[in-house]
Write a structure and sequence with these properties.
With about 90 residues, the chain is an alpha+beta fold. The chain has two helices and four strands. The chain starts with a strand and ends in a 6-residue tail after the last strand.
Length: about 90
């Protein structure tokens, strides 16, 4: 049996010089991620607060965190998560 993350809703803070297109493509390259949606919630001189919705068959949270850090994006909170259980049939 495995438990897979199917959806993450994240609140994060990123520098304005990194576009949401670049960031969403970088996250979508992660294995197990099928869709990424980013919405800019608030903007100031140097940063943007963003809300990300990440969906897929088996999202690797650690990889998402790594890509965010590589793009100088600070994760503020995980606002929603959806997981599912996959039962692997036993071979006789």
């Amino acid at each position: 049996m495995s438990i897979d993350i199917k959806k993450l809703v994240l609140d994060a803070l990123k520098p304005r010089e990194i576009s949401i297109a670049e960031l969403s493509k970088a996250i979508c390259k992660i294995e197990g991620v099928d869709n990424v949606s980013i919405n800019v919630v608030e903007t100031d001189i140097k940063t943007e607060t963003i809300r990300m919705i990440i969906q897929g068959n088996s999202i690797l949270y650690e990889e998402v965190s790594k890509v965010l850090a590589e793009n100088s994006t600070a994760l503020k909170s995980v606002d929603e998560i959806a997981v599912s259980k996959k039962i692997t049939p036993k071979l006789a």
